[in-house]
Amino acid sequence: MASSGDIREKLRKKRRALKETLKNRDEDDVQALVPSTKMSKGKLQTTIKEPETSEEDPGETLKRTFRTQRERKKRLLEQSSYQQHEEGGLEEISSVQHRSEDEESADQAGEKSAVLSRPPTGSLKGRSSKILHSPGSQHLDDLVTRRLQEKLNAARSKGESLQEQEAPLEPPSRLQGLRDRDTVTRFDREFDLDRARRHDDPLTLGPRIKFREAEKRTEKDLPTSEEAFNFFTFNFEPEPQDGAQKLGRKRHKQKKTVEVDQGEEGEEEGEEEAEDKEVVGEGEDNQDENENQDEEAPLVQDEGEDLFVIEQSSHDFLEMKKAEYVGYRQLVQRESELLFTPSFRTVPTSIKLPENMKPRYLEDEGLYVGERPPVSLTNENILENRILKMEEGKKWFGDDGRIMALPDPIKESSTRPPLFNMEDDLDPALQTVYRKAIKSKYANLYIAGAADPEGDYQLDVDVSGLIFSHHPLFSREHVLGARLAQLYDQYLTRQRNNLTGHLTDKLHGLRSALRNMLNIHGGQSLSQAMQRRISEYSLEVRNTRQLRDSEQEKDRTLLKNIVKMWKDMKALRDFQKYTNTPYKLYLRRENVDRATDEREYEEEILAEIVEWEAESEEDYQRKLAEYKEQLEEWKLWRRKQKAKKKKRKKKKKGQSQDDTEEEDEDREASESEGPVEEGPSKPEPPEKPELDSIEQQVREKASRIRRKPGESVLIPELSASGNITATELCPRAETARREDVTRHSLFTKILYNDKEVSRTDSRSLNTDFRVHFGQIFNLKIVNCPQSINLQVFEEIGSSCSLLAQVFIPVPEPSVLAGNAPVEEFEFSSNQRVMFDHEGVGSDVPLSFEADGSDRQTLLTSGKLSCCVSWGVGDDDVPLAPHVLQQGKHSGLARFDPVTYIGASGLYDMKKIGEWATQSRLDPNDPKNAAIMQLLKVASSGEVTAPEYFRLEQLQEEFNFVTDEELERSKRFRLLRLRNQEVAEFRNYKCVPALEREVTDKVFQDYEKRLKEGEIIDTNEHLDSHRALVAKYLQKIRESVIHRFILAKHHYLLSDLVIEEEIPSIGGAGPGILGLNLFKLAEPKRPLKPQRKERKKVTAQNLSDGDIKLLINILRAYDVPVRRPQINILGQTSQGAIQGSDWLCNQVQVRPFVEVSFQRTVLQTTTADGPNPCWNEELQLPFSAPNGDYSAASLQSVKDEVFINIFDEMVYETGVNDKDKGKSIHSRVEKHWLGSVKIPFSTIYSQSRIDGTFKVNTPAVLLGYSKERSHGPTSGYDILRGLSDGAFITLFITIEPQLVPGETIREKFDSQEDERLLQASEKFEREAAQGYPDRPCITTIIDLNGKTVFITRYIRPLNPPQELLDEFPNNPQEATALVARFVSLIPSLPDRVSFSGVCDLWSTCDQFLTLLAGDEEEHAVLLCNYFLSMGKKAWLIIGTAIPEGPTAYVLTYEQSRYLIWNPSSGQFYGQYDTFCPLQTVGCLVNADNVWFNIQEYTSPMTMSFDIAKAQLWKPFFSRSFSHPGLSSVQPEELVYRRTVRAAAVELQDRIEKILKERIMEWRPRHPTRWNRYCTTTLKQFLPKLELRGGRDVAEGHRHELQSLLGDNKITGFPLNLPFSEIRPIVEAVYSTGVHNVHASNVEFALAVYVHPYPNNVLSVWVYLASMMRT
Amino acid sequence: MAASNPTVFLLTVNGQIEGANFPEYDNLYCKYCFVYGHDWAPTSGLEEGITQITCKGSQSSNKLIWNFPLETTFKSTNPSGWPQLVVSVYGPDVFGNDVVRGYGATHIPFTPGQHSKTIPMFVPEPTWRLQKFTSWLLGRRPEYTDPKAVAQGEGREVTRVRSQGFVNVSFHIMTKDMKKLGYDTGPSSPANTQSVTSGWSTEDQ
After folding, report:
1. Considering only CA atoms, which of B120, B111, B121 is closest in space to residue B13?
2. Does the predicted TM-score (pTM) go above 0.80?
3. Fewest Cβ atoms nearer than 10 Å: which of A251, A398, A505, B68?
């Protein structure tokens, strides 16, 4: 190694030389500076740099011109200056070098190839390093060249092979990287710094600052770590663009060179380098080290000198770098470290499995392996390869060497029914049919936990077989055989039980005990206790003996019967000469020792006799004692009797003397009479028992029931080993029977919970009438076992019949499959079967006796042997339900106490106890605590069982106070009432904290209201009937409101969240998307502005004054004009009026509009003429009752908006010229011309009212004429005439717009057919979709809250006969009268009475009773009347102004359609412009509903011909015909005649009240009543009523005028239907008659009440003010 | 007020809306109001308020600080309807429209003393996608008709909300006469006996 001193010296020299060359050269090469710098750096590092570079070139000239190489060098040089700085202070080079090599051999491989890309450098390095070894040699050209050549050759040969591998690994930007790396390794102290720089290098290329920094640092030799950090983290300004460009170009160039080089020696060079590294430790090692040294080490020292200080040329600030190129192979190699491309190839199985494992295929071993989901082979291979790459990749593979996979979960076919689009387009055949829900009997009877997979319950039903004890096909022999078998069975059972033996033993024991007892005590007197015991014992002995005797007797008879039966059978066999049954009875004799037998027998008899005697003795004694007692009694009585008789006899003698005594006696006698009759008869003395007979009896009995002593014991044995006669040998009848038998076969159905779950195979009937099934059915159950039923079916040929059913109890959970015994269940059938062959049939009398006596009737019967048990799972887990297993309930009956003992049994303690013990109730189960406690109490006996069963027996303990106390607490009551939202307390604030602070006052109102419910306030209603109705209405209302309150708590999203509608495209209504583009094109101020939709406000955060009523009064038509006064003047003093009225005569009328609402009055300016135009907007404040702005409260506002048209009249009262200046005093009078009233509720629900309304003008308007001022009347004369009158165009709305309350979102129950409801829903929905603005109603809600189909409301109903009688010859008049009658029934909108929650329809009789209803009720009534009058009438459901959605009536008469407004009684022709009906939605009559599907909805533009299907869509059509709905209306309406006197009374009261009110309204002025005028007016009113409210002839006015003389009179009659007094007062107030302030004014008020049937009253108020002129 | 026989109890709430954590939004302000039952009445202090607009600082990355004081006294006769603090946060969206960023509510703590609460916030979601888009575009996002809806349970089932950030509130609670009226809300440990001098105490004797 060269010493650093040497090197430094040489370097200095070289540098100086270089500087010069550089200066010369740098001008001509600006490109590719950076890479060349790098190269030159290498040169610089060596002492021999300058010559070296030049000599190096020849090495390269193998490919390139010297020239270009030089330029490059130059560049390198420049760059090196920079690089050197970075890499100052290179100590410990070699040591670190090794490490670096080791560490980064991989990188180096890459780096080498990078070198490769620039062969010159590589060669240079190689050379330079060598040169290092021989420093001082100035002329190295040759050497280097030679060396290179050698190298090349060597490398070529060696590296050829390596190349292939290394080539792909070629990474880009070699040189730079290599160098950096070296630095890094060298400066291990500054490792970070260098590494960081390495990363930064490409980024920080060229910034000037960096240069400076670097410069400074070089001066200091080494940068501190902090500086380094700053250096690398600092954000340097990017270099100007051209630098980058340069770089780019450089790179480009480099690439070219690479391309040129690569093919040839470049690669080899690289390999050579690689080799070098590989053979570390040899000479090459040194080379490498030197190489690094060349590059860096010497420079450090140099930097200390002035290299850069001097040469801060523009080159210094540029970083020169060779263009970096990342060769594809390099790229791939580099990527290969990070990336992995799994191969497509199949992975050999051996790799996937653990070592030394063979793949194991489960499928081959017979195990089920599901089908894998399909995955393409390539994908699977890729996945496998990928997984294998991972650590522990093998765990993903199964034993078969494949990736573990679950079976394919996708089913081949869909298991769910396809979903249909429920909207429409559904095939009618697939329409869902809705049925009323039926509560399933087995609902909720699922076994707990049965749903989950563990709850796997299984019942095993083992049907082993059945044996017939009788079958129709039995032959006689069979019958006997069956009986014999039965008896034998019985015998065997008895034998097994051996009751007789037991009892005999017991008896012996008892006897000996008794004997012992007696013996022990001997003759001693027995103690009391002992005596009792003895008697108990003897009693026991007696009972036992009796039991034994009976058993013995049974045994005996049984044996006898068996023998008899066998004998019978034998006889039968003999008789018929063939054998049918294999039965054979053997009687085995067991001989006994006669002597002992006899002795025992005698002993027994003796003992018995003794006992019997003792007993009978005892009995006798008792009876005797009894007898004596009775005898005593009898004697006593007898004696008394005798005495009495004697007395009586005496009395009878002295009867006359003493009557009273006799009476007493009599009484006594009669008293004793009864006892005489019933007196004890003389008792018979008991017979002494005969002891002899006892013995006889005993012996008799013994012989009857017992084996005779010495008689051998007979043991019957029945075997079925006999031979059956072959069929050929039998007679024909028997053969037929046997054939029949073979035709029969049997099977059993298993029904679980009444559902067939399984059936056995069909087995043919054997000749022995036994059927063996031997089948076990495993029932997986989910439902609670209710019943298990086996049905035995008999199959004859193809027909099968139910023979019998056997109900099998549900087994206890403990009964498991293994241990359940097969049980036999008897069955029988009462089917009658007869045969013409030997078969005995069933239910047929049968006799075995020759004479036919002793007939028996046998029924088919038999025994089914089966066994039901709970299954056992694979691992011996019983598959019985848990609930049952706990022993809480078991089986069907015990599952639930109610099913077990019945609901009533719950109150029976005993039954409950029984049930509890039977069901083995778990006493520790908390669920049973209540029952256990109850049982404990009941069984302890201390407490008598309560009469009730309490479910929550601990409730009391948790009560704070008793219920009564809670009830009494005022505070609690208050809280509760508030919670219930009772009106008075709904918003009650601050309920006092303490009980004592709640005063009773709080409840006063509430209680008063409650009480008032009962009291009828006649004052308010003036009519008791109406008061009652009002009360009734109130009740309905309350119930509806209650519902509403409930429904109010159901929210919709729109109630809670404000969400902007998606803006629409163009047209009105919410569209889909986009901006309203058309709006832009709209004129800014259109000539006819459209009203825009406003934002709706929910009425919750509103307060007083927030809401205003906007009334826009546009114009009016045909306002009545003043009648020229000349007429009047002519009659009165003409001159007087001239002055004042002359001016007025010029104008016809000066109307203005006054709007009054909630006692706020506003008015417009005055306009002129009969067709005024105001165009004014009036704002009226609105305040809700009690400040409650909730929707419910607003809807029930009953206030009405009165829009009155007045005529303003100015009278000049005179000219005052006191002050010399003339001032004219004028008096303004306003004369009421007419009014329109609109209920607030309408405005609220409609949110706006827009249209032209007919002004309600009085029938007579004094001083005005209603003559049309224009237009000749023509065409529809009558119709035009009817629509005469004034009209006013209005627009009314509420500001802000309130959201009307929603109707109840509840479905009401209905008695209509479900199908009908479905259809109507569909009809309405379709209508709403197609024509959203046309009301369509098919179902409505009646007063009971039930949904009713609308056509049920239409039915011809008779109008009151009086009305019809009125005009018997004029049907038109009668029609009008009927309409008037209907219109006189007060109208009360439902939304007022029911808070708008729903539209309830009352039937006509209800309507007439309530005398209040909505438009719909009026319309229905009118329509029904019309129908009954023989008209064609329909109900129109549509919208009208101002009512909004409403109902009108359509009639068809004289080929014209007339539209009737039922609330006003008016009718309009179809083409009437002023018809208030705006939209026709649908037509209804009794048969059908037609929906309007025409283009237009206005009556004028549409056709009412419902026959046209394209115009009217019928509800009931051919596809859905009218199901014949009966009407809900009554057959006939019954009318009550209104009492005239009541009407008169009412009339007086109204008059009185009105007069009072008018005086109240005029507090500052005296109100004088002109009585004369009043009486005059009163006469007019009935006439007006007669004319039906239509205007009366002029004569009336004249008459009046003449009567009143020269009074100037203004006035008018008002006509109202009567409901309450309030509306009348309001109406009078709104006319403003009282507002005349002239001093000389007088008033006249006349009231007339016209009674119509059924308390419908028409009220007329004639109001006039007059001034004496 | 007759100290011996109180008829109402008092609840004083001091505290502040400290700030919020809305990682995505900036320039937010907060509105608050109290919701309380029929038996409650505020006696002093503001029932409603609106804070300043705050931006995120460069230091504290996500925190929005308002430090908006709350100071209200309620009187009541009945603990039912205990006051709740309802906060709603608003701020501009990308287009500068003022939109709601969250609603939240919390009960005023029952126990006297210091409490700090973190209120999770949420906003109603548009009903469907398109609406979501248009509401985003037009800055008219769905809002509760009444922010107080978040303090009540009724009708909430019809809404769908998305959670969005948190608001931190600290409370200092004092009560008076609660115990005298039979309501014991204090900690189970026996109250300090020292504060007999005044009716006001954090531990309400």
Report:
1. B111
2. no
3. A505
